[in-house]
Amino acid sequence: xxxxxxxxxxxxxxxxxxxxxxxxxxxxxxxxxxxxxxxxxxxxxxxxxxxxxxxxxxxxxxxxxxxxx
Length: 69
Known about the structure:
Layout: E1 2-5, H1 13-26, E2 32-35, H2 51-68
Parallel strand pairs: 1-2
């Protein structure tokens, strides 16, 4: 699972598609979600302006972990 900020300057939009392609090619079930306008580490709950994206990211991550544990 990859939860990425669309405004991340460390992992850019140009990095995301090749990553997703490689994950798909590996045959491993995966999910890649990009939160447009969100910075790197947006799901740190102290980022009030990204609270909605953070809450969604946490829900997705917990569901993914539960499914694959």
